[in-house]
Amino acid sequence: MDRVKSKHKMRHDLAEIPANDTARTALSVALSMQTPPLTLKQASRAIGRNDAYLHQYLNRGSPRHLPEAIRYQLAAILGVDQATLAHHDSLPKGARNADISHTATNSAPLGLQTMSSVPFLDIHASAGGGTLVDASADTATAALAFPRSWLRKISPSKTDALKLITISGDSMAPVLEHGDTVMLDTDQTRPTPPGIFILHDGLGLVAKRIELVPSTSPQTLRICSENQAYTNYQRTIDEVQIIGRVVWFARNL
Fold this sequence. Notes:
The protein has helices at 3-15, 22-32, 40-46, 53-60, 68-78, 93-105, 148-154, and strands at residues 115-126, 140-147, 162-168, 181-185, 195-200, 205-213, 220-224, 233-236, 241-250. The chain is α+β, with helices and mostly antiparallel strands.
């Protein structure tokens, strides 16, 4: 995505929104403050609507108000309070004065400081026999936003060390399936304790469970698949490049 064009588009959206329409203004600002900025098309898809849904909402006033379920979805994605995306008559009566007055005086940060973006790399780790992939060609093609407090729970490393990639193959099934998205901690490149790592084993970039073999010199790794149809093997630690430990995964239903 062209970040310069994306930011320009967000400013254009803001310019067309009436100054007193705090809900639409809050949404447009929140989208533009993502890193990289989230387009209206991307956000519409993320909430399961057609590509033009949020463009029509911001620029054509349709729908007039965002449904409550949509507000909560967007709030979770953008790291904002759903009340900032609500019009006065969309909130429960008892919540209007407190929530809207809070929004009016504290709308600039929008809670976005609580989110961090993790880049999605354009590489596939083979959960199979290995594929010839240049691990240095890790160009980020997209990013997903996660709550920082949640990221701290799954990894002690800084957010910059976290990357997302896609699994290809079935050697790690049923733990990791073909098409799964995994998050790597690239600061964790030593298998102590053992775990699932992404590594280059000399033949390709693979997802495997690895552990140190005790009392070996040179130090040796045991590289294992979860799928028993695949053979386990060993490499000396100097023969492989460990990219990072898998700390989280996601799967389509």
